[in-house]
Amino acid sequence: MITLKFFMKNILMKMVNHIHKKTNMKNLCLGGGVALNGVANHRILKDGPFEKLHIPPSPGDAGSAIGCGQYSCPNPCCPKRALW
Q1: DSSP element (H, E) containing 52
Q2: Of 15, 59, 61, 83, which one has the greatest count of Cβ atoms within 10 A?
Q3: Distance from C-alpha of 28 to C-alpha of 55, rounded to nearest angstrom
């Protein structure tokens, strides 16, 4: 029997591969409720293109503001970002 978890892990891997293809970054930071799925996180590290995976201590869905703040901070590889 194919479960929802199976589909979710496959979709997550497609998203992770797409993100890597677009950014070519070595590290990935996940947030939200999906980041609490340890099996999917293991698969991202084992089968995915990223070398390191960071999950904040409180990755719940309410942490969007923290992710936006981290995204807007200056980054050596992307010094200019459009902030709306």
Answers
A1: strand 52-54
A2: 59
A3: 9
Model pLDDT for residues 42-69, shown as the tens digit of each residue: 999 999 999 999 887 766 666 566 666 6
Tell the burial category of 28 from Cβ atoms under 10 Å away from its Cβ (0-12, 13-18, 19+): buried
For 16-37, write each residue's pLDDT tens digit: 999 999 999 999 988 777 888 8
Dihedral of the alpha carbons of 64, 68, 70, 76, in degrees to the nearest 10: 150
Domain ranges for the chain, please list them: 4-18+25-72
CA-to-CA distance for 13 and 28, rounded, in angstroms?
12
Torsional sign, CA 33, 31, 50, 38: negative
Nearest by Cα to 39 from 13, 64, 57, 59: 13
